[in-house]
Design goal:
This protein is mainly alpha-helical and about 90 residues long. It contains five helices and no strands.
Length: about 90
């Protein structure tokens, strides 16, 4: 992912309407995103493009992820614990 695309992704991850998603996505972007394959980075970017009211139930586990491509990233997001704000 090029520098400009990464900056846009960072903006989408940390300027959410829900503070919880700001914290989870922002932490994931810093700590886990660099370890992902290119394909999984693309899937994470797709998730970051989702509206908060659609993404939050997937991340907090109140809804199951039905997209097989996204399920692995959603599982990683669910494991992500936020201890301190970024």
């Amino acid at each position: 992912m090029d520098h400009d695309a990464l900056n846009r992704l960072q903006w989408r991850c940390t300027r959410r309407a829900l503070l919880e998603l700001d914290l989870i996505l922002g932490k994931f972007l810093v700590e886990e995103f660099p370890k992902l394959s290119d394909a999984d980075q693309h899937v994470f970017a797709e998730l970051a493009d989702m509206e908060d009211h659609d993404l939050w139930p997937l991340v907090n586990g109140t809804e199951e992820c039905e997209d097989a491509r996204q399920a692995g990233i959603v599982a990683l997001l669910r494991k992500s614990e936020v201890r301190q704000p970024l």
